Amino acid sequence: KYEAVIFDLDGVICHTDKYHFAAWKCLADKLGVYFDEQINNRLRGVSRMESLEIVLENFSGKLTEQQKLQYSNQKNEIYCDLLKNMDSSDLSIEVKQTLDQLRRRGYLLAIGSSSKNAGFILKQIGLENYFDAISDGNNITKSKPDPEVFLMAAKFVNKAAEMCLVVEDAKAGIEAARKGGMDCAAIGDAVNCNMADYNLSKFSDILGICE
Ligand code: G16
Ligand code: MG
């Protein structure tokens, strides 16, 4: 049924949540803003600037656009420093074997991530040059739930939306896939929103869908 699989990166291929949390927490503490894991969960799949707006919901002061940019840059510097801790051990054997198997079955494999750091993360976990295409925060103007990132990924692998299956861990990503006319499989927290075509209990379940 499908010819290409488009994977979200953070929360699907690997887990960068704890680094995002640590970096946002650092910024929030500096601003004297309350921040916890629950607020961090709302940032999944959302762009950096939109994430900052969510972090600032509990901030009473007013910031100029320039200050916001400065703060989001500060968060990103802390985050990128933490990403240096990642290595090939952050790519699970299950994920790697599943990807290899999909490739053997003839599927094109792409990344569809909101992150501007996708290339660096892929390099850290040893998947640099692995995917047939990478669509990420650097080639889009609107982030999830807008379908742009997935539509670009489909375009990069030269497949119509109906030929693509999206794998996502965030509600914003499931919405994006649906708006783009693609079927989607939810994994992790996204299973709870009950909006996907398939709910995966583990990554290798994709092999049951893409036979
Ligand atoms: C990821 C994360 C989001 C993050 C976004 C932008 O999206 O899930 O929490 O805000 O990237 O990241 P950056 O600040 O590195 O550009 P995805 O789509 O890979 O799950
Ligand atoms: Mg994600």
Automatic annotation (TrEMBL):
NCBIfam families: bPGM, HAD-SF-IA-v3, PGMB-YQAB-SF
CDD domains, sorted: HAD_BPGM
Organism classification: Bacteria, Bacillati, Bacillota, Clostridia, Lachnospirales
E.C. designation(s): 5.4.2.6
Keyword vocabulary terms for this entry: Carbohydrate metabolism, Isomerase, Magnesium, Metal-binding, Phosphoprotein
Gene3D superfamilies for this protein: HAD superfamily/HAD-like (3.40.50.1000), Putative phosphatase, domain 2 (1.10.150.240)
Residues forming the catalytic site: 8, 10
Binding site for substrate: 8-10, 24, 43-48, 51, 75, 113-117, 144
Reported cofactor(s): Mg(2+)
Binding locations of Mg(2+): 8, 10, 168-169
Protein name: Beta-phosphoglucomutase
InterPro entries, per database record: B-phosphoglucomutase_hydrolase, Beta-PGM, Beta-PGM-like, HAD-like_sf, HAD-SF_hydro_IA, HAD_2, HAD_sf, PGP-like_dom2
Source organism of the structure: Anaerocolumna jejuensis DSM 15929
Family in the record: Belongs to the HAD-like hydrolase superfamily. CbbY/CbbZ/Gph/YieH family.
